[in-house]
Hints:
Elements: H1 3-27, H2 35-38, E1 45-47, E2 49-50, H3 64-68, E3 76-79, E4 90-96, E5 100-108, E6 130-136, E7 144-149, E8 155-161, E9 165-167, E10 175-181, E11 184-192, E12 206-214, E13 219-222, E14 238-241, E15 252-264, E16 275-288, E17 293-299, H4 327-330, E18 363-367, E19 374-383, E20 388-397, E21 400-406, E22 412-418, E23 421-432, E24 436-447, E25 453-464, E26 470-482, E27 495-506, E28 511-520, E29 537-548, E30 555-569, E31 574-588, E32 594-602, E33 605-607, E34 621-623, E35 626-634, E36 641-652, E37 664-675, E38 680-697, E39 716-737, E40 740-762, E41 766-770, E42 778-794, E43 797-806, H5 820-829, E44 833-841, E45 844-845, H6 846-852
Parallel strand pairs: 1-14, 2-4
Antiparallel strand pairs: 3-13, 4-5, 5-11, 6-7, 6-12, 7-8, 8-9, 10-11, 12-13, 12-14, 15-16, 15-44, 15-45, 16-17, 17-19, 18-21, 19-20, 20-23, 21-22, 23-24, 24-25, 25-26, 26-27, 27-28, 28-29, 29-30, 30-31, 31-32, 32-35, 33-34, 35-36, 36-37, 37-38, 38-39, 39-40, 40-41, 40-42, 42-43, 43-44
Amino acid sequence: MSFTRTLCLLLLLLAWVAGRPAAFAQTTPIPTATPDAKAPAPKKQLQAVRITGAIKLDGVLDEAAWQQAPVATDFVQQRPNPGQPERHKTEVRVLYDDANLYIGAVMHDSSPDSILREMTARDQFGNSDLFCIFLDTYHDQLNGYNFGVTPAGVQYDARYSPAGGEDFNWNAVWDARTTQRGTDWYAEMRIPYSAIRFSKAPEQLWGLNFARQRKYDNAQYFWNEVKPAVNGFVNQWGDLRGIRDVQPPLRLSLTPYISSYVNHNPLNAEGTRRTTTSFNGGADVKWGINESFTLDATLVPDFGQVQSDNQVLNLSPFEVQFAENRQFFTEGTELFSKGNLFYSRRVGATPIGFYNVKKGQREKLVRNPAETQLLNATKVSGRTKSGLGIGLFNAVSNDMYATLRDTETGQEREVATQPFSNYSIAVLDQSLKNNSYVSLINTNVTRAGRTYDANVTGGLFRFNDKKNAYALDGSVVYSRRRGNVFGEDTPVGDQDGYKYAVGVGKISGNFTWDVNHGIESDSYNPNDLGILFGNNNITQRVGVAYRKFQPFWKVNNMAFFGQVGHALLYKPTRYQSLYFYNGFNTTFTKSFLQIGYDLQHNARTNDFFEPRTNPLGEFYVRVPANTDFVAFLNSDTRKQVALGLNAGVQYYAQDERLSRPRRVRYSLGAYPRYRVNNHLTFRYSLDWSRSRNQIGYVNGGLSEDEPLDQPFMGQVLLGRRDVATVSNVLQAAYTFTNRMSLTLRTRHYTSTVRYQDFVTLAPGGQETPADYQRHRDNTYNAFNVDAVYAWWFAPGSQISVVWKNANSPDAQANEFTPLYFRNLSNTINTPHNNSLSVKVLYYLDYLAFRRKR
């Protein structure tokens, strides 16, 4: 399909999409939202009351000061029936003194049994009621805090920002107590000023909202109405007034840690110890530089207790993106997430020379650390009273070496796998009126010696109109690399690249739409500190959505989504793909059963990345037109037994130019959950997929000294293969109290690949059968057990005991075993690495220490 023909087709589709809502309404009338539903509700105000006496935090609210404070009540439902007043009243009062903000809340209900109170770990809600307070301390209507507590006393906190959305990885040190009396439950919260940031103004004006979740009927209520048809969240809060003559305190805390590990690895090289022990110590420091900015530093960090990665067999041309589980890199990083230019797993990642250690003829590899040792990491972030956010991040990693041993003499030598490196980020983010902002971000990686350095600079913006109904956003990013390839004298070349993106759309109301366009040049590469799966693209996309927020007929809500996307190769300019997407979901009123589907049709695609060759544009894999359909349902999570299901099929057309069997892919997912009682819960997830006649790259791993490969050296070899993948995860959680829990997570993953035949790929997507005889079938197994006991014995202080058990996936990567239970048996019976660790954190607050003195 020519570029001109494709562009004409895209323009026709845009015209069809723009006229679609009226045509749709002719066949299926859908009520339109009232004008009031699209405009933010009037802002309520609450007066805080200063106190001089002490407040005992016990969840009773029996001090006289609580009765003297104004009451925030008359909450408004946000779901499932937006705009309805609450039937069971909520009453909230706010007090303050020179050091703390106090919140007292009474949640009235119909009966004791309708107050649900599942016990969970911190920052998890479960099947429970909930009360929380929201604070916008700079009143910029963009950034805010959330502090919440359940009837069982489980605390959670979160941050809100345009870049990070709702970030539950953020944690503060504060306290709360709850009680239940008959048909009411009470919450009493103490939030130290050291947990938040605010200006030195004589009189504070903060954004304020309260929320209550009544799980019995799956309803959520807000004090200041939050309308789902209005774009934004923080901009729909009310105001807190009356806080006068309070000074931002000196925020200084030290959290030292000690940890001890016992590790047994039966696969350690011969001549090395199978069981090793280690003792570590370090600290986290938090210092409030002024009322706006905070410095966070981790000194000699220890991340050995974080959850194990979900290892998979990667057959794609792109790397696997793993979740970040290290608390320092997940907490308070909303500024650094601007523009998606920071992938924190790059810091302390696998050394860049890990896979390229060259052994001599008589040498064997004794040690090769898979993680770079991080010496320290520091971040400074905050926002001024004028709405300027500033973020600075810096981390330093050590030199890393692999150890080789001569098998005859026993002499050892070290080979560098990673140079001493510095990682830094600088961010400026200016909040503007109408929920708008402009941002500038720079990331930099500097390596010792002649190994190349990398720098990326980006500018971002978002402008909303006064009614917060329409928005224009975009970004421009420039990347630069200079220096030599690691371990070589070969320059990487002057790699300068860029990308830009621009979009416009309607962002509020029942009906929304957006139009986006972007370019990533062929030399754009942010992957030294960011992540990008493929550059050299020109993309354009048009999306529409219709959401029905008010209940009607037998459903609570409904949403339709539609999208058309088109992609070209940037250099040379060639057609890549064209797709059409439609999605739908709804939730039923009484059963709270959620159902929906995702349907996408892909026109014939030219995959320029699968051949993994330079230059791009000459070689590509022809992917026939195909349709991908996935349906899903989720049952009522309030029930003791809950279930999520999804099933999908991706069916490919027959490509007449290629004489091969038709491709097809099936998938199934099942996610049951059984809540034994309010303390014990089991969760299980099963993900299964099977691809038949998949076409993929084969050359990886060919060796010049293997005669069977000699005829195909220098050629792109593709294989037709069947791939079956099964992932099982079983989790059990027992929560003793709201500060003590035990969790167990077991995961087994297996993926089996069987090749049917092979072809060589020529320019223009031409394929020629190849008489290739090398055995390529294999099975990849990964098995992990993570058991964690955690006890928060004081605010900010924790003892954790972690046991980890894992196999070595590479040890079985070449054994073709298609039967799942045989794979499971082989995986369990192979040698495993076992690690037992104990870690103690103790939070030391300077203000508390000074008050005690």
